[in-house]
Amino acid sequence: MTRRLMPLQTTPPEYREWLRTLKDEIHQARRRAALAVNSEMILLYWRVGRDIVQRQAAHKWGARVIDDWRQICIRSSQTLGVSRLGT
Fold first, then answer.
1. Which residues form the domain of 26?
2. I need a labelling partner for 74 at 20 to 30 A (CA). Which of 6, 8, 55, 86 fits?
3. Which residue has the higher pLDDT, 38 or 7?
4. Per the domain annotation, does 5 fall within a domain?
5. Residue 2 lies in a domain
6. For 11-62, what is the HEC assignment?
């Protein structure tokens, strides 16, 4: 037997307010989590870019390094179920 949710119109106002607050908190936590992930990814890409530039200068690597790195990112994003990085 499945339990049906009580219509919001018949619930006490403080319960409805608590549900709204709970939904807001969930939304805010998800937003903070997304911002934290985005910040970490930006830092990672910056470090990788800096490393590529330094290694290209030191080892005379060509532009293929960037294409190879891009392919690694695409494969990684597909494995993780993330959208394709700018492709």
1. 10-80
2. 55
3. 38
4. no
5. no
6. CCHHHHHHHHHHHHHHHHHHHHHHHHHHHHHHHHHHHHHHHHHHHHHHHCCC
